[in-house]
Amino acid sequence: AEGNVKAVDLINNIKIVSTKISYNKTKSKIISYDQTFFQIDGKYEINSENVNFLINDQIIFSNKKTYFADSEDNQVQLSTFKYFDKTEILKGTDINLLDKEDNRYFVSKGMMKLKDYELIGKDIKVYLRKNSFGNAENEPKLKGNSIFYKNDKTLISKGIFTSCDENDNCPPWVITSKKIIHDKKNRQIDYKNAWLKIYNVPVMYFPKFFHPDPT
Predict the structure, then answer these.
(1) Distance between terminal CA atoms of the chain?
(2) Rounded to whole angstroms, what are the CA distances from 49 to 62, 71, 81, 107?
(3) What is Dmax (Cα atoms) for the chain?
(4) Torsion sign (Cα): 129, 133, 137, 140
(5) What is the pLDDT of residues 172-207, one digit of tens each?
(6) Closest among 52, 157, 68 to 111, alpha carbons compared
(7) What is the 3-state secondary structure (H, E, C) of the chain?
(8) pLDDT at residue 50 greater than cutoff 80
(9) How far is the C-alpha of 177 from the C-alpha of 191, rounded, in Å?
(10) For residues 96 and 209, what is the distance between their CA atoms, to the nearest angstrom?
(11) CB contact at 8 A, 31 and 52
(12) What is the per-residue pLDDT for 164?
């Protein structure tokens, strides 16, 4: 089918809109070409292209740049994605998540459990709101090897925190830590085995350390 094409999965409440769609009844598979819009159960929206929909397995995937949004105003951009409708799990690469509080998460590879709003991934960067400390010149951020986010708590392993704007050399100061926990509900950042570094030189060690978060 070509033109203004609309396909609806009445059982799983999935709507597909595209300019070209092919349907293979034997394989129970839909392939959309060019720009494609998915609406899933009234909760999630997907904008992508060249999307495969395995109807029986309820799996949707594409190797093209994709924009994903949920009903809580969280927005996700991915280079590739695979969505499992049965479990409401979204997997992808080059994940760029903007939450409703304007915090931005960058993950090279990871997955989101949308039902529980969990984020698991590796090679993580978290850029908090620029005006969080009352100064728009600051650039508060967390970086680390991996992330686990759930229930307003972000756990980052082998991470760093700084509020300095990066220059050509390095931030003037950073706190490095084996484990960093950002508790958004209690507005606090906790560290385990932390070093304060000034221009990359360790100057002070804390077995445990905490401070208010940027809010």
Answers:
(1) 51
(2) 7, 22, 11, 22
(3) 66
(4) negative
(5) 889 999 999 999 889 899 999 999 999 889 999 999
(6) 68
(7) CEEEEEEEECCCCEEEEEEEEEEECCCCEEEEEEEEEEEECCCEEEEEECCEEECCCCEEEECCCEEEEECCCCEEEECEEEEECCCCEEEEEEEEEECCCCCEEEEEEEEEECCCCEEEEEEEEEECCCCCCCCCCCCCEEEEEEEEEECCEEEEEEEEEECCCCCCCCCCEEEEEEEEEEECCCCEEEEEEEEEEECCEEEEEEEEEEEECCC
(8) yes
(9) 6
(10) 29
(11) yes
(12) 76
Please name the amino acid found at residue 80. T
Q: How far is CA 1 from CA 17, 21, 36, 147, in A?
A: 11, 5, 14, 43
Look-up: residue for tokens 């809580």?
72
Tell me the C-alpha distance between 83 and 42, whole Å. 15
Task: List, for residues 120-178, the tens digit of each pLDDT value.
Answer: 999 999 887 665 555 556 678 889 999 999 888 999 999 999 887 766 556 788 999 99
